[in-house]
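Table S5 (text form). Sequence records supplied for joint modeling of the two-component complex.
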Amino acid sequence: SAVISQKPSRDICQRGTSLTIQCQVDSQVTMMFWYRQQPGQSLTLIATANQGSEATYESGFVIDKFPISRPNLTFSTLTVSNMSPEDSSIYLCSARRQGFYNEQFFGPGTRLTVL
Amino acid sequence: AQTVTQSQPEMSVQEAETVTLSCTYDTSESDYYLFWYKQPPSRQMILVIRQEAYKQQNATENRFSVNFQKAAKSFSLKISDSQLGDAAMYFCAYRTSRSSNTGKLIFGQGTTLQVKP
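The corresponding structure-token record, covering 232 residues in total, follows.
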């Protein structure tokens, strides 16, 4: 299995500011993903983080609002820019590698509250 | 586009009893993966069980088993001998296997399972 850690685990931020969430995987992975989840609801894919190239964003999510970096095969960051209360959510990092039935692993999430 | 539907927002079961969580999906593909994930209050998503569509045999992992009906596009999860630690939100998920390196997980809405002592 792969172990994924995220920093910070939670944060309270002011409107208009930005927060960068870090995701570290304990082994090299093929793909990394960022999800958003409202408490008690399902997961929505924000983007696929591509190593060495621009992330692939899902409909409704744009790079200016959610810039993503993936400098290597074990690390990625998601920035939530110019935050508003509507951005309050749980942000989950996820990763998958070849083999092992392409099992997808998840981090513990970052709970973000925007005031 | 593929969709996943969980029609039971909440379920409850008595400890030691058996419960079945429902999941249906829609796809035009013939080869894909199906998963059940568990998310306890700690938020950590845990893979419970997986099923490859080309396999007719239902997957089993200890107390967890699935009833995979490919023609009906149904993928239910049965939890036997329910334990207090099984209380969590359960998500059914689909992924195409044609592009197994790039395919996205598509999640259902989730079912919250309560286990009563």
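Note: The longest strand of chain A covers residues 89-96.
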